[in-house]
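Hi support team,

I'm opening this ticket because the web form for multi-chain structure prediction keeps timing out on my end. I have pasted the exact lines I submitted so you can reproduce it. The total is 621 residues across two entries, so I didn't expect it to be a heavy job. Is there a limit I'm missing, or should I split the entries? Thanks in advance, R.K.
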Amino acid sequence: MTDVLVARDLVKEFPLNERRVTALRGVSLTVAEGDYCAIVGPSGSGKSTLLTLLGGLDLPTSGSVELMGTATAGLADRALTRLRLERIGFVFQRFHLLPVLTARENVELPMAELGLGRQERRARADELLDYVGLAGRTTHRVTQLSGGEMQRVAIARALANEPALILADEPTGELDATTGGEILALFRRLHADGTTLVVVTHDDRLAAEAGRVVRMQDGRIVTE
Amino acid sequence: MTWSWAWRDLFRHRGRTLLALLGVGVSAALLLDMMMLSGGIERSFERLLLSRGYQLRVSPSGTLPFDTEATVGDVTALVSGLRADPEVEDAGAILGLAVQAKSAAGTAVSLVGYGVQPEAQGIYVLESGRDITPGDSNGVVLGLPAATQLGASVGDTLRFFGRLDPQTAAPGAERSLVVRGVVRFLYDARDQPSVALTLDVARWLAGPAFRDRASVLMVRVAEGPAPATVAARLQREWPAVGISSVDDLVVQFRLRLTYFRQLSLILGAIALVVTVLLVGTLLTITVHERLPEIATLRALGVARRTILLQVLAQGAVLTVGGGMLGLVLGLITARWLDTILTAFPGLPASVSFFVAAPRPLALAALTLALTGLLAGLWPAWQAARAPIAHTLRQEAT
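Hello R.K., no limit was hit. The queue was backed up. Here is the completed structure from your submission:
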């Protein structure tokens, strides 16, 4: 299996009221193609911070991240942005959809940035919305959708540019048990279809479904 | 797609955006009006002075035409000399005087009289009837306000009185004149009752002190030489009088209007500052509200440059939209203000303070566009530099 993601000795410090808080204390993690990895741990253990570093949304204080063999530390913003666009899909706890756009337009957005033509991206957006079970909701504004539906749109958007890796931060955190269960099923299906997943979660059910569970505490990986 | 988002996002808060557009519109209207005011009256004045093709004015030395009651002497010789000049096509003298006439109802109406040489006059245009002719010792033409006040029409005979006593207005000369036509006086203030008669009749009514004198002479330069050059040469030949080209008069006029230019400059600058603050504030608020969405776009892989251009484009939409509204508002208010300002006593009614010339319009549009760009720079930079992880983390807590 090819390594999609390799993180070595990640340290992340933040300034807080004239002192520095260490969120990550030397975390190393390797994710291979096709992995379904859950990162669990109590609040403040550094899970989400780790995810932002793995996804190139932030840079570590020290240590390195390699995405598909490319080290993020040396990349200019433009190159890092392009890497995220082409190779990573993000799913957030609060969905982060654009409320003025329809479900289809939200899914089309990363494809438009990539430069795909209107017809092509529309067809693919419809295909992805069908994949996540929202075939009949393509022209709805996302504000007209339920929480579970919004998260499905966010997952479809994450898949838009056929990324090598999906990073999800508490994808069921805002959903009730039933709706959360539907998202779990969708992740199960994604994994079965060969998608590489790294999911930060408090949800025991989600963690139980993942092939790998990385447990964190106080900015360190304590068990794997 | 991101452009569609930026466009729709601008109108997410319709009321706020429309208020901003209205605010920019008012600022743009003020800017446009000030641009039109700063040079408009000069252009209008120049157009008026050249409206009958006379490029030079001869007035008593050291004065401007009709600026004082001083007159030029030896007018017959002066006019003959000017008409004989190879670089002069035509020249005519005008004498201004106070006259009275009896209305149809028998009341005395005070009038401004102009004695002219009908073959070379540049102060009125015929509206109806016919013009007076050289040597017409019984004819008169009336301006519309005079005709209205006198209740007279073409063909009527009116009694005119001159040499009015400054204390009692008792006349020292009286003459019957036939109304030949109704004219429009180009340099008159609004509703000014004026009449024109031949120079000889005017002098007779004015009295012996005005024999061979005139208030001003109008000179039309022959095709070829520059009027300013001819004016300079004639001035050397006739040093006892003042000879000015229209350009000279416009310069004099401009000096007198420094106040207007300063006022328009200050108000125009205020309009620009208001526009920058308005658009900048709205965009800054919008950007701050949208920071989580902007961070999401950046996380998904949307380039900084795209975000920067989107915010600048939003500023441009506000500025251009407001500018178009301002164009309409500006033209309407300019017309309204013009009506008020041109009603000032002693000011030619045909002068406009606000003139919509292509250059000030283009300059106002360009200035406004640059202002919009400037106003969007800071919020655009903030949007493009928003820290992705930090913003998303804050949104999640």
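A quick check on our side: The interface with chain B takes residues 48-49, 52, 55, 57-58, 77-78, 81-86, 88, 90, 92-94, 96, 98-101, 105, 108-110, 112-114, 121, 157, 161, 169 of chain A (CB under 8 Å). Let us know if the file doesn't open in your viewer.
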